[in-house]
Automatic annotation (TrEMBL):
<dbReference type="InterPro" id="IPR006619">
    <property type="entry name" value="PGRP_domain_met/bac"/>
</dbReference>
<protein>
    <recommendedName>
        <fullName>Peptidoglycan recognition protein family domain-containing protein</fullName>
    </recommendedName>
</protein>
<dbReference type="GO" id="GO:0008270">
    <property type="term" value="F:zinc ion binding"/>
</dbReference>
<dbReference type="InterPro" id="IPR036505">
    <property type="entry name" value="Amidase/PGRP_sf"/>
</dbReference>
<dbReference type="InterPro" id="IPR015510">
    <property type="entry name" value="PGRP"/>
</dbReference>
<comment type="similarity">
    <text>Belongs to the N-acetylmuramoyl-L-alanine amidase 2 family.</text>
</comment>
<dbReference type="InterPro" id="IPR002502">
    <property type="entry name" value="Amidase_domain"/>
</dbReference>
<dbReference type="GO" id="GO:0008745">
    <property type="term" value="F:N-acetylmuramoyl-L-alanine amidase activity"/>
</dbReference>
<dbReference type="GO" id="GO:0009253">
    <property type="term" value="P:peptidoglycan catabolic process"/>
</dbReference>
<feature type="domain" description="Peptidoglycan recognition protein family">
    <location>
        <begin position="2"/>
        <end position="124"/>
    </location>
</feature>
Length: 172
């Protein structure tokens, strides 16, 4: 059972702007990974700091209003609250992608040959985040990967295969 970590709990900065222009009933949820190199923390005590670093990068380097993702999940089975339900994302790479799709990022990465272990807890975190975005955020049942919006390696071969074979679909 995944554990939800609120923005206050992970020490989020406030967004510089809030944009509620999203119509996820026309799309669903897009799956991301964070990195083309291994990224998962061995110790969960490091995960909140990773999420803060992602937010800092998105706000300070990319100039975005907030962390780009709707939610993030780690290999230890925790779901970190991102922009949240009812908020437009900045992660999906295209205007229609950000208009119609939420974004959930696994705090994992790597190459096809050398990838972080995709734990059962990570899969559980994806299930929890996706279910939440459907139940509380009005997302349609569509599930795809970042690469379905534009040319990118994200979310990597292993996670993308799990998008396609239904492994990331929340249990009924
Ligand atoms: Zn991505
Ligand atoms: Zn963790």
């Amino acid at each position: 059972m995944a554990t939800f970590v609120t923005r206050a709990e992970w020490g989020a900065r406030p967004p510089t702007n809030i944009n509620n222009n999203i119509t996820p009933e026309n799309g669903g949820v897009t799956i991301h990974h964070y990195s083309g190199t291994k990224w998962a923390a061995a110790d969960h005590a490091e995960c909140a700091g990773q999420v803060r670093a992602v937010q800092n990068d998105h706000m300070d380097s990319n100039g975005w209003a907030d962390i780009a993702y709707s939610h993030l999940t780690c290999v230890h089975g925790y779901v970190f609250e991102g922009r949240g339900e009812g908020r437009r994302t900045a992660a999906n790479g295209t205007d229609p992608g950000n208009q119609n799709w939420y974004a959930v990022c696994g705090l994992v990465g790597g190459t096809t040959q050398d990838y972080d272990t995709i734990t059962a807890e990570l899969v559980d975190g994806f299930h929890h985040a996706i279910g939440r975005l459907r139940e509380q955020g009005g997302a349609a049942t569509g599930l795809n990967g970042h690469r379905d919006h534009l040319a990118t390696e994200c979310p990597g071969e292993k996670l993308y295969a799990m998008v396609q074979d239904g492994s990331l679909e929340p249990p009924a």
